[in-house]
Amino acid sequence: MSLASSAPRPKDSxxxxxxxxxxxxxxxxxxxxxxxxxxxxxGVVVAWQMYAVTHDPLxxxxxxxxxxxxxxxxxxYAGHVADVRDRRRVALTALVVLLICAGLLAVASAxxxxxxxxxxxxxxxxxxxxxxxxxxxxxxxxxxxxxxxxPARNALGADLVPRALxxxxxxxxxxxxxxxxxxxxxxxxIFYTWVGPTRSYAISAALMAVSLFTVAKIRAPARPPxxxxxxxxxxxxREGLAFLFKRPIFMGAxxxxxxxxLFGGAVAILPIFADQILFVGPTGLGAxxxxxxxxxxxxxxxxxxxPPGRNIGRTFMRAVVAFGAFTIGxxxxxxxxxxxALLAAAGAADMLSVYFRATLMQVMVPSGMxxxxxxxxxxxxxxxxxxxxxxxxxxxxxxxxxxxxxMGGAITVVSxxxxxxxxxxxxxxxxxxxxxxxxxxxxxxxxxxxxVASDAPITRDPPSAQS
Length: 467
Fold this sequence. Notes:
mainly alpha, disordered C terminus, two-stranded antiparallel sheet, 1% strand
């Protein structure tokens, strides 16, 4: 089926399900669902297992650092690879590595981690330092694989749907990822309690295998030859950096998201809240980790059916402020139900931020540069989740668990107010429509140099020509 035949209805008849009628896109989002569920289950099990061994918040933070360091180190090269190589093959290779890592975690847990009782923190390592080193080592490899996966997958997603469907496709992609973020942590906590860490890792590996299979089923349209393939690596990376840093709207959105995730999140130290503050154990930990995603799923469903129309810049700013405020409320809560509600509200606010930034990238970046721009974006945003986990562990060690989360939420609110002053063009952004429906041209290379210094729309290779 031609991608052009899947073009949306007239603008006054929004069809939110149009992206799902494209077979390649369906395989794509199934892969996102299963890969994200695998990663979320693995994250819960690693966090609880590490806390069971160490009872140290800093050890939880170091898990994030172990993934962030290679993630950032390879990001720029990975973006270049995503623009000059077959994006589907790059994604497949990265998923193979992640599948192997999940299997190694299962083997390591079976050999070195021996549960001794049915209590919430049952288990001890033989010896503890060795299992920590093994987990950290595997997580480092996971970070490197994810560094190549994300820009390739983000760029591949833009090749699968017509340009006019980008906002709806982003909403579906983000929403389905959030569905996994709801189910994954909850299942991770349940699996850890019912079947133990080893079998939980095995389930994670099985889901990763499904993700690998579904990416293999994608038949992506051939992209036109890219001038980037003959460019030196440094020049190619420099072009991607110039595109991003010379556009104030991008810089404002990325900077604000970076600060919000780096300081405003509390995911890494949720095991402490579950064990010492709310007293709900590993099953409760799964619910706490799933709560933000529940709010995000509800928000993404609303966005898919009723996409934002006007004043999207101000909506983005207000969403970040709300995220910080709800985070502060969670830190001060001593009720499990209230804590879940506040985390869900924070997740809904964060979803608005994710949708804004992802859609902005899809509609403004030409296809031939999307891998490199996605890589720079992931340095700021993707790695901030892991660096934020490290920051949370250090702050909790130095300030205490509750004060550290309150401080992070306050920094997020202040940063939103500051960004409104430093990047006024971001707050003034009215609608995606001017970008999503701009005239298209195959002469992408010719349009890039003249446009990188402004926030004007950039033309993109028409997907209909790639079918």
